[in-house]
Automatic annotation (TrEMBL):
Pfam families: ANAPC3, TPR_16, TPR_19. Keywords: Repeat, Signal, TPR repeat. This is PEP-CTERM system TPR-repeat protein PrsT. InterPro entries: CellSynth/LPSAsmb/PSIAsmb, PEP-CTERM_TPR_PrsT, TPR-like_helical_dom_sf, TPR_rpt. It comes from Kinneretia aquatilis. TPR repeats lie at residues 398-431, 636-669, 670-703. The keyword Cell cycle does not apply. The keyword Glycosyltransferase does not apply.
Length: 952
């Protein structure tokens, strides 16, 4: 239907219902007054709208329509119509008090004060009514003195005016004088039992008083040591005492004024607080009948859908509600809760954060935002958000303490975390999550056996699986595999239809090196849940170990059929495609698709940054990092990835900015300090780097890698004594670790103290075999002149570790530099058998083949470049082999590519000049030689450059 036709139809309908219906303006007004007299405000609204079609400038009709809207709870429409009545100069004594009431209902307090703050009406009752509304506005804007003055003036004009006395009641209740407030209410209702607002107020005060008394009883029970003290909900069919009186008061208010949204709200809140969803549903139906589109109706329909776990319907309604009331804190809190349940954490954070800005005391919003920050890896923000709830010394909320404990645990403050978990467990011994975390927190003080025993006790008493998973992991860490399997059986009995137990059993079998049994368990996990990524990933890794990449690929493809938006599976496929020889463009497109699938998932964006860094495409990596941080500015993972990209690109100041931002986001994590230290090392600001490493150790004193790195940087700064002290401290803290001894060996080797260096490295190898340390020991022995001992070490190591490709490659390199070309070739050939796709090995074999005049050198060089196309040294080797085979044009082309990758590499430029000379192109040769000549002393081989220039 076109718009003009629709408008015409509407006008025709209006004509049929009004002007063409035969009723006059006076007749419609009379009918409206009759309807209002009968309490039928809805019919009156229709009649008054029709009357206004006849006479749109009627101030009386506007006034009556505004009053009718107010009667049915539509305060916004009432404010509009009453405003028009004021503009039409309708009697101020009648319209201004109602306008003030509408503005109070709409919380337009400042507008009311500005417009009517100095108004003086002729009728004392009307003035008292206006003053009462102004008192509410003054009180709501913090002007309590003016509020009390307005009340006093209103009572002087009308000593027993119910609206003013009702406001007095509210203020008494606000100050905690519930007894006095209820006495005043009873007095008011004795004089006039038809005061709907007073009945509703009675319900409100009784409900508040009931909650206060319940909280006081809970606090008293908690302080007396009564565990798990709580007040049970009252069922709708068995209401007694205060609850029954309150419900009856609300019902009386609704009976007198069916459109009293606040009274409906009181009942709905009561039924929902007590978990009586059928009663809440019945009450909502009554509210919808009288106020079908009122914001409160939409709010409670959304809230009820939320409680019934119909989150999609709740989202639809909450979005509708926010269009009506975009600044309403409760509406924002509900919208945030809905998004939280639907895992829309970015939107949840936005709604909840806005709600707290508008109403900082919203406890539910504060708790939920805390959970959002924990789930998105921002524990420091979680601690900041939850802290205001913990500042009240009278808090006796086990769930709050448990959440606080988790926030502090994730933020690295184990001491505070343990204190909160202890409080939660004391208040509610049935809170097994807190008891489990408390038990795990004792790991530093209690014996492992005591911790395990406590976890077992919790597991036996708790139908949930929190303690079971912790117990299984503890057994796995201790490599007590039989006990781990026993604990997994308990977990499986508790969760027979979930994949976790099968997956953990698979891990145990892998630890036992029983791959067939592990595969069987992991396959079972996927039968139970085809979307369970951990099992698919483990099976894929087993497939890759068995040289079955196609099978690994099918694992993730099957998972994506069941769950198309699984980012982890998409990224795994991208990695497999890269390993299978996919082009960079193809791999990048696959990662980008994962980002598109879930733009708010940091993992995909970090994967793209890492891929570009690995591809040495620094510009693209920086761009991806910038886009990632712009999309998710509070993601620690992206801050860290951006910092790494900037550091690798040489943008050290910008890298420091990223890592400092990371430090602010994760103040209890050692990672930011470690990353900052590496940047300062690159800047050769070793003292500053040492300071950051010490800070990292303060946060993670058991982190052996950080401690070793501290020793390395101390050594770089010439702090030999300090480095040796760090090595000694590391040996003392972790006597079974090789790191302290390898650090000592490095320090001694730098001082050319070969004997103590060799001794330290041998002790390191005794703790754990390590290719790098084995290579360093060979270097130390050789440097000390102990060739026989170095050769014996080489033979012994290769005999014990025949598949150690790294050590074989190192020895091949040593033999190559010593001119033992055939021996070196044999070493590299052995490495090639172990790593046939290693481009560095192929490159070395190509160069040796060329030197030894063996066939196949060109094929090896080309394969090396194919595997690593942007490595200048490999291109240089390929060029040399091409030159040896007299393929000069291609040799020049390849050497030019190498120089483009490393334009500051003077040796590459000299080789290109020589190739030009050999091909007879003296002009291009001269150009390259002159470039080298201008470098001067920066290039140490200027004598050869000058000799070649003279020969041109």
């Amino acid at each position: 239907m076109s718009t003009p036709k629709l408008i015409a139809t509407s006008l025709l309908t209006a004509c049929l219902l009004a002007a063409c219906g035969g009723e006059s303006y006076d007749s419609l007004m009379a009918s409206a007054k009759t309807s209002i007299g009968k309490g039928d405000s809805k019919t009156a609204i229709i009649q008054l709208k029709n009357a206004l079609q006849k006479s749109p400038e009627s101030g009386e009709a506007r006034f009556m329509l505004g009053k009718a809207f107010l009667d049915v709870g539509d305060s916004r429409s009432a404010e509009v119509e009453l405003g028009k009545a004021i503009a039409l100069k309708f009697a101020a004594d009648q319209v201004v008090p109602l306008m003030a009431r509408a503005q109070v209902a709409n919380e337009a307090f400042k507008a009311l004060i500005e417009q009517q703050g100095n108004t003086k009406l002729g009728d004392p009752k009307s003035q008292a009514d206006l003053l009462t509304s102004l008192a509410i506005a003054f009180e709501s804007t913090g002007a309590s003195d003016k509020a009390h003055a307005a009340i006093a003036e209103a009572l002087q004009l009308q000593p027993e005016y119910p609206p003013t006395q009702t406001l007095q009641v509210r203020m008494k209740a606000r100050d905690g004088d519930f007894t006095g407030a209820l006495q005043m209410i009873d007095s008011l209702l004795q004089r006039d039992p038809k005061l709907a607002e007073v009945w509703r107020l009675k319900g409100d005060i009784l409900m508040v008083n009931r909650r206060v008394e319940g909280a006081q009883a809970l606090a008293a029970a908690a302080s007396a040591g009564v565990a798990g003290a709580s007040s049970a909900p009252e069922a709708g069919s068995a209401l007694t005492g205060t609850a029954k009186t309150a419900v009856d008061a609300y019902r009386e208010a609704i009976k007198l004024q069916p459109g009293d949204a606040a009274a409906h709200t009181g009942l709905l809140n009561f039924w929902l607080d007590n978990g009586d969803l059928p009663a809440a549903t019945e009450q909502l139906a009554a509210l919808k009948k009288v106020l079908p589109s009122h914001p409160q109706t939409v709010y409670f329909e959304a809230l009820l859908s939320f409680r019934q776990r119909d989150f999609n319907r709740a989202r639809e309604l909450s979005q509708q509600l926010l269009k009506q009331a975009p600044e309403n804190p409760l509406a924002l809190q509900l919208a945030g809760a809905v998004e939280f349940e639907l895992k829309g954490y970015v939107q949840a954070e936005e709604h909840l954060g806005k709600a707290l800005k508008l109403a900082p005391n919203l406890g539910i919003a504060r708790r939920m935002l805390t959970q959002v920050y924990l789930l998105t890896g921002r524990p420091a923000r979680a601690v900041a958000v939850i802290s205001p709830l913990l500042q009240n010394g009278n808090v006796v909320d086990a769930q709050l303490f448990s959440l606080a404990g988790e926030a502090y645990r994730q933020n690295g403050d184990d001491k505070k975390a343990a204190a909160f978990f202890a409080q939660a467990a004391k208040l509610n011994p049935g809170d097994m999550r807190s008891r489990t975390q408390l038990a795990l927190g004792k790991a530093g003080t209690a014996s492992p056996e005591e911790v395990l025993a406590e976890l077992k006790t919790i597991s036996d008493a708790d139908p949930s699986t929190v303690a079971d998973v912790a117990l299984i992991r503890a057994h796995l860490q201790r490599r007590d595999l039989d006990k781990a399997l026993s604990a997994i059986e308990v977990l499986e009995r508790k969760q027979p239809n979930k994949p976790m137990a099968h997956n953990l059993r698979g891990l145990v079998y892998l630890a036992r090196r029983d791959v067939p049994a592990a595969r069987k368990s992991l396959e079972q996990a996927l039968k139970v849940d085809a979307t369970f990524y951990p099992a698919a990933a483990l099976l894929a890794s087993l497939d890759l170990n068995d040289k079955q990449p196609a099978a690994a690929k099918k694992r993730f493809e099957a998972l994506l059929v069941a769950q198309p938006d699984n980012v982890n599976a998409q990224l795994a496929l991208a990695e497999l495609h890269e390993q299978a020889g996919g082009t960079k463009a193809e791999v990048e497109a696959m990662i980008t698709k994962a980002i598109t699938t879930k733009p708010n998932a940091p993992a995909a964006r970090v994967a793209l940054i890492d891929f570009q860094l690995k591809s040495q495409n620094l510009k693209a990596a920086l761009s991806a990092a910038e886009q990632g941080v712009a999309a998710l500015p509070e993601s620690p993972e992206l801050m860290e990835a951006q910092g790494r990209a900037r550091a690798l690109a040489g943008e050290y100041q910008q890298a420091l900015e990223s890592f400092n931002a990371l430090a602010r986001a994760q103040p209890r994590s050692p990672l930011p300090s470690l990353r900052l230290a590496e940047v300062y090392v690159a800047l050769k600001k070793y003292p500053t780097a040492i300071g950051h490493l010490k800070r990292a150790l303060e946060l993670a004193p058991d982190n052996l890698v950080v401690q070793r790195r501290l020793g390395e940087v101390q050594l770089s700064n010439g702090e030999v004594k300090e480095a040796l002290a760090t090595a000694a401290a590391l040996q003392k803290r972790a006597p079974g670790s090789p790191l302290g001894y390898s650090l000592e060996g490095d320090v001694q080797a730098q001082q050319k103290a070969w004997a103590p260096a060799a001794a330290a490295m041998r002790r390191s190898l005794d703790k754990a075999p390590d290719s790098t340390i084995a290579s360093k020991l060979h270097y130390v022995l050789s440097a000390a002149g102990n060739k026989a001992e170095a050769d014996k070490h080489t033979a012994d190591w290769i005999k014990a570790h025949p598949d150690d490709a790294e050590f074989l490659f190192y020895i091949g390199g040593v033999e190559l530099t010593q001119g033992q070309l055939q021996a070196a070739e044999a070493r590299f050939a052995a490495v090639q058998k172990l790593q046939p796709e290693n481009p560095a090995v192929l490159n070395n074999l190509a160069w040796l083949g060329m030197k030894l005049n063996k066939p196949g050198a060109l094929a090896l060089a080309e394969k090396a470049v194919q595997l690593a196309p942007k490595q200048a040294p490999f291109l240089d080797t390929l060029s040399s082999v091409l030159e040896a085979e007299n393929k000069l044009p291609r040799a020049i082309e390849v050497q030019t590519q190498a120089l483009e990758l490393q334009p500051q590499n003077h040796e590459l430029r000299l080789r290109l000049a020589k190739l030009y000379l050999k091909s007879g192109d003296k002009r291009l040769a001269a150009a390259e030689l002159n470039r080298l000549a201008t470098v001067g002393k920066q290039y140490g081989n200027q004598a050869e450059v000058q000799q070649l220039l003279r020969g041109l």
